[in-house]
Amino acid sequence: MWITNSGGNQVTVFDAHTRELLSSLTIDKDPSGVYFSSDGRRAYVTNSAANVLTIIDAQERKVLRAMPIGTDPDGVIWSSR
To answer: Does residue 56 form part of some domain?
Structure first.
């Protein structure tokens, strides 16, 4: 389970069954929306106050990069077009 904490600029990862804390990542300002790639390898988190999309290796739970994407993003959706 991935939870964004906009006030603390973090994404926290828990085991949904045991509720064990697996990881906590500090990322850019005001994380909100989370989307996962279809293979589960990448997590994409919008950071609305920083105007970026943070790309995370979901298995290693490491930030790969932050990409500027526009003003005040608060969610993610994928289109296969």
So the answer is: yes
